[in-house]
């Protein structure tokens, strides 16, 4: 069932938005199908769709939906949930998906920091390459602290703007 039928929305306008926003996500580095699925979920009132609904809305195969959702779930952009009384899964985008995606990058930063520390040790802190590694390491350590502080400020701002969850 398409949402625009009951919501008074212009289905063509929604489709244009989904494709336009997806194109922006692709330009920023997200693969095309996950970008389209994410934009479709984000633009739905419920923030959730079944695989069949996504396939119908985006005119893509179940395999394309599955691959896109797998990518989005791994990057913490969507979650899977069972439809009540059914074996079908629904895919949901949450209001805090950006927060979750950014916060989960912390694990990646930690791994990079470890590798860079090894690089500084291996190359020697006094070599040009070692200094470059040390500067890169210092940048990631700085970013990590800033992200934590920024996320705390976001939580306060979000609650003030949108109320408690």
UniProtKB/TrEMBL annotation:
Source organism: Streptomyces violaceus (Streptomyces venezuelae)
Residue ranges occupied by any HTH marR-type domain in the UniProt entry: 29-89
Pfam families noted in UniProt: MarR_2
Record key words, sorted: DNA-binding, Transcription, Transcription regulation
Entry-linked InterPro entries: HTH-GbsR_regulator, HTH_MarR-typ, WH-like_DNA-bd_sf, WH_DNA-bd_sf
Name recorded for this polypeptide: MarR family transcriptional regulator
Keyword Transcription regulation: yes
Keyword Heme in record: no
Species lineage: Bacteria, Bacillati, Actinomycetota, Actinomycetes, Kitasatosporales
Record-annotated membrane-spanning stretches: none
